[in-house]
Structure prediction request, 756 residues.
Amino acid sequence: MTISHILGFPRVGAKRELKFAQERYWRKEIAEQDLQDLAKALREKNWKHQAAANVDYVAVGDFTFYDHILDLQVATGAIPARFGFDSQNLTLDQYFQLARGNKEQFAIEMTKWFDTNYHYLVPEFQKNTQFKANPAHYVNQIREAKALGLNVKPVIVGPLTFLWLGKEKGEAFNRFELLNRLVPVYTEILNALVAEGAEWIQIDEPALALDLPSEWVEAYKAVYAELAKVNAKLLLATYFGSVAEHAELLKGLPVDGLHLDLIRAPEQLSAFEDYSKVLSAGVIEGRNIWRANLNSVLDRLDPLKAKLGERLWIAPSCSLLHTPFDLEVEVQLKAKNPALYSWLAFTLQKVEELNVLKQALTNGRDAVKAALADSQAAADARANSKEIHRLEVAERLANLPADADKRQSPFAERIAKQNAWLNLPLLPTTNIGSFPQTTEIRHARASFKKGDLSLEDYETAMKKEIEYVVRRQEALDLDVLVHGEAERNDMVEYFGELLDGFAFTKFGWVQSYGSRCVKPPVIYGDVVRPEPMTVRWSQYAQSLTQKVMKGMLTGPVTILQWSFVRNDIPRSTVCKQIGVALSDEVLDLEKAGIKVIQIDEPAIREGLPLKRADWDAYLQWAGEAFRLSYMGVADDTQIHTHMCYSEFNDILPAIAGLDADVITIETSRSDMELLTAFGDFKYPNDIGPGVYDIHSPRVPTEEEIERLLRKALNVVPKERLWVNPDCGLKTRGWPETIAQLEVMMKVTKKLRAELA
Ligand code: GLN
Ligand code: ZN
Prediction:
């Protein structure tokens, strides 16, 4: 018998039921009991799906009303003191206030969960944080699952990862010092789970896949020696990367089992083959949507089974929270692209794959012959598909000249040629791309998609909008105009729909944070741009005005980062394919007279690998893919890029290496602090630091913008400084947008006069 188990399950439900119920509860349309009932029914369904696939332990405690790290803050008593709440008696309303803020307190900050697109709430630790156990969250879910007759395995994030993911607040100290206070509280929580009859407890320590300081790594020994005293078996779960460098440490810990992510880091297995306890092999991809080739998974598992016997467990690589729920509802995709459909597996299909593996390991492959043959057929078809492996794409990439990603001349020469025709004033003003997306625009786009609006009427509506946006910018006296992106619902989806190699699901939602879900495009085949994507719109916008119109594209790294990416070729290759496809668009724009072109890369930093040792390789191919997207442009064509708020300090050389003529970045929220790094680094090209926050309808005062611009002038020579908002304006309304831009223009003109 081979044990199978699940590390975690999607929480929001097949139809995003939890999201809709939460939002109705927040709007006070339903009562707390209604929300609780719905959540309970959802948990029951989720567990039954797991049980139906014969898993030996269903995951319990992973369900959350908002975030599992917030649950842990409550369970350990580490909720921020600033709210004044009692973690022992927290109401659901207060729980949501922690997550979403209230009149007096801003919400707990959010950040990305490792390198996924899920966001967790960052614990705020203080020097005097006093932990206090409140295991109710886990205990209640165990009771519920047990009442259904299920075999449970509670799931909790471990103390070192929990501490590591938090931040110090208030008086300076090192949160590592809190460990001694935290561990007894964990013991108390674990004991409460034991009292509920938990035989195994899964403790997640994904921090082990990061670059941890040595004192943190060392601490695992003492911490787990302590936790192992509880009267249950502990399964230490690692995922998202290799933990081979800690193999000796991990093999020596007094836990009863270890889970390894063999999808992200298959090579680490060799370091653990002599493990003497339960080894849980994460062999079904938990973060992507591809069906496994079960025969080849079994080829790897068979020798392991021979060695470990009953000590081999199997599981998905990580929690399934990162995959959509059910492929079977994708009837449109199935009709349109049956081959692609047969290559996919969402959560429900993945647990079934696990079931097939379990049967094969327990009763031999013959017992599941049909399922294995099916899986093999899909894998073979995918490997040989002419639709996804296009010779012309491979050849084009292979035959790029060595300097394909280099501009013809250095920046100094280019900018002189650009300035000669652009004729811009000092401190040129521009926008990041989108303008307010009114209900009419959204409605027109939606009706056109549904087929309720003719192509002609849709074009008319968009053109009207573009004209409005152009006239507004002219009235404001902006220098480099944008068309406003009214035709785009989403900056990645828009391009995915126009490129070959992309597909879209109807219900392929994954949780981003709280009640928010995203539906990433699927990159399944070689990427080709069959025809121009944005040229018509930009050209039309340019025809309306004497001012310069900026073309607007989403960059290859951002498209890659916000999609489900094929796993049969390296990500770097996919990214370069997108870059090359985009270059066709850039050259067509140039030919059409659009000679200022912005290629947005807000996600470039998100793609950084978890371990620093892998950063250079990533930055190298990401930079190349970006530069390929403008290959072949003339010196006097001006390439812009845009990035949103993130720490750039540590990757500035790579950003300079993108060699965009102009970079616009979100800086106002950090009070231009970010820009200081660009100054210290002596960033060589033009920079447009954002001068106001676009997340708020608040109109900045002239003094605020003036102060920010003067700060910027201290760092960037006036000849290389642009003026723009932090980011696109699609989430704003028109009245505040105009008022905000008016202030920006007024201050700019004042400073221009002074600098002239
Ligand atoms: N051009 C995009 C816009 O203006 C950029 C969005 C972004 O940076 N996230 O909406
Ligand atoms: Zn942005």
Summary: The chain has a mean pLDDT of 97. The chain is about 45% helix and 15% strand. Residues 432, 602, 642, 644, 666, 727 surround zinc ion (ligand 2) (CB under 6 Å).
